[in-house]
Every structure is written in structure tokens, then in C-alpha cells.
From TrEMBL:
Name under which the protein is recorded: Cytochrome c553
PROSITE patterns: CYTC
Cell compartment(s), UniProt: Periplasm
Keywords associated with the record: Electron transport, Heme, Iron, Metal-binding, Periplasm, Signal, Transport
Residues passing through the membrane, by range: none
Domain Cytochrome c: residue ranges: 28-110, 119-209
Signal peptide: 1-23
Origin superkingdom: Bacteria
InterPro entries: Cyt_c-like_dom, Cyt_c-like_dom_sf, Cytochrome_c4-like, Cytochrome_c_Oxidase_Subunit
Length: 221
């Protein structure tokens, strides 16, 4: 299974590279992104804010997330590859320039200049370590789970564990108009695990040191 996933990963990274080459002329502007984030801060700029769909969970931390991942995620919502009515509606309203500006802003927000890179993540329980090996998680997300091998992949260390659990389950969901994520790599990984095992992984990832933050908007005004 892992050999299949690695081959599939290589193919999809190649396709992402083609997309990036097409879009690389759109340069993000941090200051412009700060002025365009009114639709974002109502959820992502409130510490502890919880969404109620598809189930109750904290909205993801996006300050400090990789800009190319944010852009990739927004485009996936826009194309319907990620199914979430609210995020689809927001993404549909954004131009390529808007997405680039917001991605640049959130990558920079809360970042500490000169901060050392996170070290290799501490080992989990024997059960968690076995699950991490089975999913080959570090091969894409890095041994700190905060340095992905491709910039369109997310940092996941320290992300809200309840959000991670919901996101992982979404990769297993098919045939639902409102829930699901159409990513072949993550779909193949997530479907190897029971929901109980996905929760174990999510809880471990959420416990790790993180570069991700929730930065209230008032700090930028």
C-alpha cells in the first residue's frame, strides 16, 4: 500500500507543479491580504471558536500555515474538491489575486523572525507509533510534522485535534454533497484506518509543538 501511495504522491506532486507554474505569476501581497480577510477573521481569528458543521469542532489554525497550502486548499474548495458549503461560498467569491494575498498574509501572521525550526516530533505511544508507520505520515509532512515535503501540503503539528479528526474522516467520505475531500493521496491513507485510529492520530498531532496559531485580528490593526 505504501509503495502505491508513494507512486501516487509523485504523480500528484508533478500535477501540482504544473498548476504552480501556471499560477506563479500571481504574487501575494501581505498588506493587501490583511485588508481582504474580513470573511476569515470571524472564524479563524477567534481563539477557541467552534464550527458546528459537519460536527462541532474548532476551526483550523491558519496563522503560520504555509501560503501555498492555503492557496491550494482555497482552490480545492472553489473547485468542489473539498466539500463544505460555507468555505465553497467564500472561495467562490475570491479571485486568484485575492487567494494569493490571503495566503501571503496568513503565512506571515504570527510568525517570529529567527525562530528555530521545530525538531523531530517526540514519539507517541506504541500504538500511535505503529499507526504513524502504517500511514507513512512523516514522508509527506516531515519528521516534525511541520515541514512538508511539498509546500502545498499542510503543517499539521499542533493543529486542533478535533479539526484534524473531522478532516481525516472527510477523506474517507464518498457520495455526500456536503462533506468530503477529493484528494487521492490522503483518501488512500485515511481509508486504511478506523475512525478510532484516526482519532488517536489526530490527538497525537494536536499535542505536538506547533508553528500554527490563532492570531486575533486586533493585533494587526
Amino acid at each position: 500500500m505504501n509503495k502505491f501511495l508513494l507512486s501516487l504522491s509523485a504523480a500528484l506532486v508533478a500535477s501540482v507543479t504544473v498548476f504552480a507554474a501556471h499560477a506563479e505569476g500571481v504574487q501575494g501581497d501581505i498588506k493587501a491580504g490583511e485588508k481582504k480577510n474580513a470573511m476569515c477573521i470571524g472564524c479563524h481569528g477567534i481563539v477557541g471558536y467552534q464550527a458546528s458543521f459537519p460536527e462541532i469542532h474548532k476551526v483550523p489554525k491558519i496563522s503560520g500555515q504555509g501560503g501555498k497550502y492555503i492557496a491550494s486548499a482555497l482552490n480545492a474548495y472553489k473547485k468542489g474538491e473539498r466539500k463544505h458549503p460555507t468555505m465553497r461560498g467564500i472561495a467562490d467569491s475570491l479571485s486568484d489575486q485575492d487567494i494569493a494575498d490571503l495566503a501571503a498574509f496568513y503565512e506571515a501572521s504570527g510568525a517570529v523572525q529567527g525562530a528555530p525550526a521545530l525538531e523531530k516530533a517526540a514519539a507517541g505511544s506504541d500504538k500511535v507509533n505503529a499507526l504513524l508507520t502504517k500511514g507513512n505520515c512523516a514522508s509527506c509532512h516531515g519528521d516534525s510534522f511541520s515541514k512538508p515535503i511539498d509546500p502545498t501540503y499542510p503543517k499539521i503539528a499542533g493543529q486542533h485535534s478535533d479539526y484534524l479528526f473531522v478532516a481525516l474522516k472527510a477523506y474517507k467520505t464518498e457520495g455526500n454533497a456536503n462533506i468530503g475531500r477529493g484528494n487521492a493521496i490522503m483518501g488512500g491513507v485515511a481509508k486504511q484506518f478506523s475512525n478510532a485510529e484516526l482519532k488517536e492520530l489526530a490527538n497525537y498531532m494536536g499535542s505536538l509543538p506547533s508553528e500554527l496559531k490563532v492570531v486575533p485580528q486586533s493585533r494587526f490593526r
